[in-house]
Amino acid sequence: MCHLLLICKQCVIVLAKDKTHDEIWDIILKKLLPLTEVNRQGATKEKIAGFKNGQATLLIYLDRSIIKDLEDKFPLYAEKFSDYAQQEVGMFQYVLWLGLVEKGFSASLQHYNPVIDNEMARLLATPETWQLVAQIPLGIANETLSPRSLKKLEEILLTK
User: Using CB atoms within 10 A of its CB, is residue 47 exposed (0-12), middle (13-18) or buried (19+)?
Assistant: First the structure.
């Protein structure tokens, strides 16, 4: 089962569940294995199996036709609209991730494109103007996350 969840300007999300969710990860594994060193294939299979064991996958797209319309409408800024779209989709993914976590889900931002672009377009019957940006497998975490070390605020914030 596959649903279009939301269109937010240039950002589009497809929710893949059940058989479609499984097919996505089968395709990703099939595409990755020939590109993976033999001694790393076991780890790759394990990682992809973990994503497939999730409950669903969100596929994040940019609708390039909307970006093109903006470029045509505002030629002064045309060369920057792709950059702005990437920033918007990044913020969109973060807000989406926060919402999933709030609802008790575990989610992971993955990027297997462009390796899988053509197969995903065929599987999901997406328009040619949609550019695949990321995949977010989601489910209930079966392990505790390791703590991460972050830079101190003083290292990333410049005050003048």
Answer: middle
Residues 6+ apart with CB under 8 A from 150: none
- C-beta of residue 140 within 8 angstroms of C-beta of residue 105: yes
Query: Nearest CA to 18 among 47, 54, 44?
Result: 54
Strand partners, 137: 57
Q: What are the C-alpha distances in Å from 137 to residues 58, 63, 75? A: 6, 21, 37
* Alpha helix stretches (DSSP H) within 12-144: 18-32, 41-52, 64-73, 81-102, 117-124
Q: Whole-prediction pTM value?
A: 0.85
Instruction: Encode pLDDT of 55-84 as tens digits.
Output: 999 999 999 998 898 889 889 999 998 898
Give strand pairing partners of 138. 56, 107
How many other CB atoms are found less than 10 A from the CB of residue 122? Answer: 10
Q: Does domain 2-140 have CATH number 3.40.50.300?
A: no
Angle at 149 between CA 51 and CA 136, to 5 degrees: 20
The residue ranges of every structural domain in the chain are 2-140
